[in-house]
Amino acid sequence: MSRPSDSQSLDPVAQTVRRIVASQAVWDVHTHLYPPTLGSPLAGAGREADPQGLLLWGIDELLTYHYLVAELFRVVSPERLSYATFWRMSKREQADLIWQRLFWDRSPVSEACRGVLSTLTRFGLDPNEPTLDRYRRWFAAQDLNRHIDRVMELAGIERITMTNNVFDDHERRRWLDGSARPDRRFAGVLRIDRLLRDWPGAAAQLAAWGYQSDADLGPRTLAELRRFLADWIDRLTAVYCAASLPPEFCYAGQDDARPHAIVLREALLPLLSERGLPLAMMIGCRAAVNPALGDAGDMVGKADIASVTRLCAEFPENRFLVTLLSRENQHELAVLARKFGNLTIFGCWWFLNTPSLIAEITRMRLELLGTSFIPQHSDARVLEQLVYKWDHSRQVMADVLADQYRQLAATGWTVSEEAVARDVRRLLRDNAARMSARDG
Ligand code: RAT
Ligand code: ZN
Questions:
Q1: Is residue 344 domain-resident?
Q2: Total domains in the fold of the chain
Q3: Average pLDDT, whole number, for the chain?
Q4: Which residues have CB under 6 Å of ligand 1?
């Protein structure tokens, strides 16, 4: 079957918007991608494989993405293939199984499946290969450094923002042993979930790393906590600090004496304000409702918007980047951003990163906030996902924006190409660059 080419059927406004959205360089404010100096489990041309390396790329990683693992267990019963057996399989075997069960035994209509195919096609590969051999050969022949440049060019990305989890021993060691070297393509982010989710555990870890901290959060511990944060912000050249928080996350205000509230109020927020760096809060992930699924086992839950309100009101000197996982939270979050200039909404996170929801959420945000938000981030965990995540999002955003401009034109306002280009640059690049203070 074929369909008329999009450009033939689009009106001139839609064509202009599509062209501008497609060519605007993006700052991607949240990914799980890393420079090659932090190692990669896939060798590529002229490089050694590093089984513990952080940068994931290639067809086997694309197919074993946790979004696809969740979908595999929709069609394979754990009675026939136990979770434990699946996790014991090699990455190649897992990828072969997913290719067979999700791409051949049925049509790959889900967003995560279609994404793999969009990506292969953009590299000039035929997405109809019955086995993965040809793809494996193609990826193995790539020079990783040049491949990163190519992926960024195809996806139209100027800057990739990492997630640097200091509580991950493996990653921490890489930063301490000097393997990480500055790479202008990647910006650092200090990820500190544990400090806010499990203070006693974090305190013990800080103590083991030479910071005099204990569970009581007295003045000495707070000073040491600030020293720890400052050390890591500097080491990573972090552009913001970030935490993923559960739906139950609550900040009750000045009198809240729970450890996470004290950590926020007495250490993290004052330090970030001093440094001019934002705090990114990603709220609504209920971890491991099905632990056997690993990373694929997390669930969504509705967040408490009142806590975000209190933080924005009580800390006017701080800047907050916020994304919420639940669809039900999106309207109140957009309304809240109308009340507080220090709140910047970003992205359609994880289960919201699907075309129908991106369209709905982006339209609503444009209607309530104009161009003063960051419409999307990729959350890519595998390098090449940048290609499809941004291609798919750009298509949806262009259609939504075109509708807005058509309605503007109907008022008699002149929709010029310059105006569209300025708005799109703001949405896809400048708002993010401004939040990344070190570069903005
Ligand atoms: O989207 C994802 O891959 C999630 O597993 C998480 O990475 C989430 O985005 C996070 O950063 O915690
Ligand atoms: Zn993420």
A1: yes
A2: 2
A3: 96
A4: 32, 163, 244, 295, 350, 379, 381
